[in-house]
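Data deposition worksheet. Section B asks for the primary sequence of the deposited chain exactly as it was used as input, without tags or linkers unless they were present during the calculation. Section C holds the resulting structure in token form. Section D is free text for depositor observations; keep each observation to a single sentence. Incomplete worksheets are returned to the depositor.
Section A, Depositor: J.P.
Section B:
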Amino acid sequence: MGVTGILSVDDMAELLTPAPGRKGSHRADVVRLTLGLPPEDGGLSPLGAWPVQARIADHLDIKQPPVSRHHRAEIKRWAEVEWLRPVCTELVEIVANFGRVMTAPEAAQELRALHGAQDDTPERVLARSLASSGPPSRRRPARRRGGGARAPARRAPAR
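Section C:
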């Protein structure tokens, strides 16, 4: 799919989520729950952000291997879409501008400020923003300069 221009956070979440599949397929549900996206009918994700695969399987009353299979297939698909590369670059720049340390809600708010989102509850916007940044297993760890010991963690000041 050729996507051009600036996408809203809502558009990104929609592009990350597959359309409902054949009857009995849990792929779309697995992806929505994996990303912590709100249900179509509103509200918050019943499992929160980034639930483990076993929790998703229990929630959908299926076994864990199909959850893992769907998860791996989507991560592969996301890695190949061109529109997501600039978003990842933006997130790296956002974190760098905050001294390389910030919370996920702070990063999500900055992404929302850059791309916009529907007026919605902060929790739903956060879920969509986190989803658009991709699952933690696909994020690259920050590179340390000089190969020395990691500095103690610090929080960026609240804005």
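Section D:
The radius of gyration is 16 Å.
Confidence is low (pLDDT under 50) at residues 138-157.
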